[in-house]
Amino acid sequence: MSKSLKRVQTYVGRIAKPANFYIRWNLLFTFLIFLFISSAIWVPCIPAVNDFALEIVTIVCIILHLLWAIAVFNALRYTYRLRKFAHHKIDLDKLNTDFVTVKHVVGLCIYKEPQALIMDTIDSIARKCSNFNYASRQAIKILRRDKDYPLGRKDKKVEVLVTTGDCDSIFGERYFDALEEDYWKISPEQRTYTVWQSPLFYCMNLDKSPFFVRVTGLLRAFFMIGYLIPWNINTMSIFSLTLKLLEDGEYTHPSYQMDDIIALIRWSLAVRRRCVIRAIPVATLSGPTSGKNYCDEWYEWARQIRRWTIGAAEVFHYFAIKFFRLPAMVSFSFACKFVFYYGFLLCIASVYTIVAPSVTPAMLEAIKGKEGVKGLVYPNGTVFMIVMLSFLGLQYFWFFCVFLVSYLCQPVFPNKTKDKTGIIRNIFHFIMTWPTITMYCVVELVAFLEVTVRGKAVCSHNASKKDNLVAPVSNVPDRFEV
């Protein structure tokens, strides 16, 4: 404890390490992405494999659909937990047999949201910013100096849990009770490498959003409980951990813009093993990107995706540098899951399922003639196209599951929030899900090219607008005037 105190007291800022602004590991990430997409062109050109080029495309599509099936299973499993926990009675006194006092430190950093939005959500705990590292150090430093606060005293049994959130987020009513309950359920050793994540749903004023914003919000919530939490890929926006793990990991990274994505890597390095993400079965709401008009909505939507993509590329670079500091299986497993999620699923899956079914037969016809468009299983290109169209139908079944999960989770949303989108608009948004995720992939591809050409100079954290999340002005006096 004294070592941690000494480290905080002597901290005067971070001395940036020398970095190459262009030759970075995210180039490998970009190479893998474009190598995979272009395989629809170069695979038919290789004599040794062009006889079963159509089967290769089919196998890739089958793998992608199997992964979607896994996501649906995980999402429905977590949906069941959320609904079941709503009727669960929490008895912390029964679990806390050692009579330990649990204290909570909450990050309340703010970006540039409208003041009315900040006022509207201040009661539920609000937003984090790039200065969370500094704010955390200063908060703990102040607490340790407070003689009335038993932090660090050997004669007092105190456990400190740190939670960070976003200003446009509304926590569930029992978030901290659920956090403490799960904290007591696991062993003291498990607590040293556990990070708690609440399922995040982008459902604030979602019924007023354009189709591409709403669909993206539904997909992000689905992917969180389908991949991010069960696969231990990364935390997102709102999460909690012990003070000891936060201090051992030297808080969040002060110079990487996507500190929530990089956090799990940073803390895994601190404990020299894989950190585990445990779901808090309480839904949390967050606001989607928004603008003042339709064009502004398009711009903010694309800008946010660009920022996420560039941030993911930077995190990949950070992880590649730290690869050998973790156990081999931990590093290899994380690399596979990270590349799959941020590279293949979010970036190229939709584009590949469009390009490959049309380009691969065209390349075979150009090389072998019209009779050459066949494989070991496919007698001709027509059968191949029928199979590909069947995969598209299956893809819409997975999209239906995305909408279903959101609907099933609504009864447990904070403040009884509902997505009031009408039936007609719901059908339209459902149809537009595939074009939306395809546009999402295109923006990501452009962002990867941009970070490849411009290097680290393009890496920044410009917050998206949240103007449309502001509630209408009320005639009732503000709570601060009472």
Automatic annotation (TrEMBL):
TM spans (from-to): 21-44, 56-76, 211-233, 308-326, 338-363, 383-407, 427-449
Record has Glycoprotein as a keyword: no
The organism's place on the tree of life at top rank: Eukaryota
Keywords linked to the UniProt accession: Membrane, Transmembrane, Transmembrane helix
Keyword Transmembrane included in the entry's annotation: yes
Name assigned to this protein: Glycosyltransferase 2-like domain-containing protein
Organism from which the protein derives: Diploscapter pachys
